[in-house]
Each structure stands twice: as structure tokens, then as C-alpha cells.
Amino acid sequence: MRALVTGADGFVGKYLVGALQGRGYEVIAAGGPNAADGMLRIDVANMETLQHALDVAKPDTIFHLAGQPFVPHAIEKPLEAFEINAMGTVRMLEAVRTSGKARGEFPRFVMAGSASVYGRIAEAKNPLREDYPIGPVDPYGASKAAAECFATSAWCSYRIPLLIARSFNHIGPGQSQDFVVPAFARQLARIKAGLDKPIIQVGNLTTERDFLDVRDVVEAYIAMAEDGDPGEIYNVCSGVPMRIQDILRLLIQIANVPVEVREDPSKFREADLRTLYGDNAKLCALGWAPKIPLGRSLREIFDDEFAQQVQTISQ
Q1: pLDDT in tens, 47-72
Q2: Do residues 112 and 155 both lie within one domain?
Q3: Based on the domain organization, do 118 and 264 belong to the same domain?
Q4: In angstroms, how far is the first alpha carbon of the chain from the final one?
Q5: CA-to-CA distance for 212 and 219, rounded, in angstroms?
Q6: What crossing angle do the helices spanning 11-22 and 214-227 adopt, rounded to 10°?
């Protein structure tokens, strides 16, 4: 089996490439214009680069992970978020359509969507199922909802065998500091290494989110590709809500350092939802189940960050 992975130079993409190779897939990794040597370089704003990637890869399956993943960045630059997340998906699927028509068949297409499309929901509606109406409340969620809508039309109109992953929060070693868990871990690692004062800056700690280890996320994507039903949407989540305050408490225990927690108003978002977690029964019906406990994920994230800080000192 040949798999094309877009966004292969990103956080999830790197794990997905490794997981696919471990299963015996022939993987063609496609990153952005500045991707490392050995990767195909694509630009989701440029149809020619997408068409070239398909011509080179001739994939049986496509995992479309390329996108702008950071909510505050999308809020600051909504046009860019729509250009990359929505129009980038439209261009990718149009490249698939024209390439597939020439060959007489389409590859399976797994699109990395987001639970942000659900938007503001009543707490009683949790855990969210895939049939719950969507209503995004920020530009990031809106851009992913637009991508979903076109993807669904690509299945209905062209029969591209497409599956949509509505991914909730995912975590793991190597994630960008733009996200809450690695941001906490970085601050605590620097405190433990003696690089910063024992003060940690935080945003809203009262929200509850659904966290899943990135290695379980990529196994979910593979399960969808291999056993999912085209045209369907699957929540990729743990099904368990965790308060951000509890995540921080566990990381402080792991770091084993005394700290003062201070609120930073700049880290609060106006459209923050209090509670958001999903129902993963539909995904579990494919034979998938989360395997990596939250405590292990947090320990490995902290250890990775601390190792980086120690290396900084030694240099």
C-alpha cells in the first residue's frame, strides 16, 4: 500500500509517517515549501505542487494533515486560516478528482478535521456525537467546518472515498509551545533546570477538554483509512473530559518543583468553551481503542522538555 501524507513535517504528521512505515506502508511524505530534504514540497495554495505530489506518489490512500492548527493564530489572521484550511482542502480534493479521473479510480482520503466545528454547546450535550449539529464560534473552527462541507460534497458529487476525522485535543512529545500542555511543560522544565523563577503563567484553568495521545490519534487515522466507511465522520478522542487545572496539577507533580501559579489575561480567549469532550463509540467500532494513559503522555512530554532545557545549559 502506498500512502501520501500531507503535513508530514508537522507534529502529527511525523508520528503518522512512522506508524505507517511500521505497518509496512510505502509512505510518500509531503511537507510545506520549507520541508526537509527527502520530502515532497507542496503548497496548498498552489495546485501545480499538489498535482505533482499525486503524480509522484500515485497513492492508494491520502492522509491530508496539512493545515493551520493554532486557534489564536486563526483568530488573528482569519483569511490565512481559510486559505490554508478550507481552500487548501478544496484544492487538494480537486487535484485528487482530476488525477483520479485520468486513472479511472480515486484513493481513499482521510481528512484531519477538528472538534472545533462543534462550537458552543450546552454541557448536557456532552459527550458529543458525530451527528450533533455544528456551529463553530471562532475562525479556526469555521475554516475547518468549511473544509468538512466541501469534503462531504466531494464524496457525494464525485464519490471520492473520503473520511473525516474530527480530532479533539491531542498531545505528545514534540508538540509546539503554542499549545497548552507543552507550554506548561516547558515552563516547569525551565524552572526545574534553574533557568526561570518558580512562577508559571496560565490562562483559563476551568475549561475541560478531551485529551488523546498523538500516537493513539495516528492509529485512529489508520483505522479509519483501513476499515472506515466512506462519507462518514469519526470523532477522534478519549471520551474523557479533563480540566486544564488538573492537567497542570499532574505536570507539577511530575516536575516535582514548588511553583506559584499566576493568571495571564493575554492567555484567555473570549470564545473559550467551558466543556468539550467527545463520544468515540463510532471509532471504537472499527477495532480502535486508546492505549496510552494520560499520565504516561504527560510524563513523556515533561521529560522531553526537560531534556531540551538541560541540553541548552550544556551548550
Answers
A1: 999 999 999 999 999 999 999 988 88
A2: yes
A3: no
A4: 43
A5: 11
A6: 60
